[in-house]
Amino acid sequence: MGYYTVDNLPCEIGTHFIDSSIEKIALGMDIRSFKKVDEFIDFLKKLRNNSEIICSVIFLQASKEVILNRYNLTRRKHPVEESTLLQSIRKEREIMAGVKELSTGIIDTSCDKPKELIEKLKIVLGLDVDIKDINIHIQSFGFKYGIPIDVDLVFDVRFLPNPYYLDELRPKSGLDREVSDYVMSFDISQEFYAKLMDMLDFLIPNYIKEGKKHLTIGIGCSGGKHRSVTFAELLYKELSEIENLNVYVNHREKERGNW
């Protein structure tokens, strides 16, 4: 994408890039880049206080299980020294929580292939131009595959009529008009969606007022293919029309190959 990239960069060296003549720079930083989180916060303030610099912080995360597996495969030592690898990962999450709150975009890499990560980066980098009051991430999922990590709100739509039991709709998904129309053809679906939007209309402005920068909404059904996808897409479409929101949608079971 045309960025000059530097990985594992210490914060104290990062300040030298502020006055650089290079137009597009991507700095890869993690818990090894600073002794205290305050160092990163100070570095970020210097970037954001410079009117000639447009800066985004993209926070990459993954589930504990995936991180454990990655360390086991690479046999690398975790930079945070605790009695077990799992405790090191938990401690790292605690330390990096402050950085996460300052980020302009969050990407969960648990199920991503390199090509998929590139596409997500392209979307999140669009925040450079238009930073909104809050970033809302909507994710559909199937309960039989487990509830997603790091979701703020979870809504269960398994009580709605299930297109899975109709032979002509079973192979399709909530991305298909026929499935979406079927799910929303029932009064109970319309009523629940109205109540859900009413709740979000109340919650989102109060989250913004409280200073929350990221809100993740999980919509779950049995397999994560029909009802949850329908509702996730409807929420995405309606919330995207609100000017002060950055809204993203993804369908976990599609990304995992469970459809």
From TrEMBL:
UniProtKB keywords: ATP-binding, GTP-binding, Nucleotide-binding
The segment(s) forming the RapZ C-terminal domain are 135-254
Q: Where's the RapZ-like N-terminal domain? A: 1-125
| Top-level taxon of origin | Bacteria
One Pfam match, by short name?
Answer: RapZ-like_N
NCBIfam families (UniProt xref):
PRK05416.1 (NF003828)
Entry protein name = RNase adapter RapZ
* Species in which this protein is naturally found: Fusobacterium mortiferum
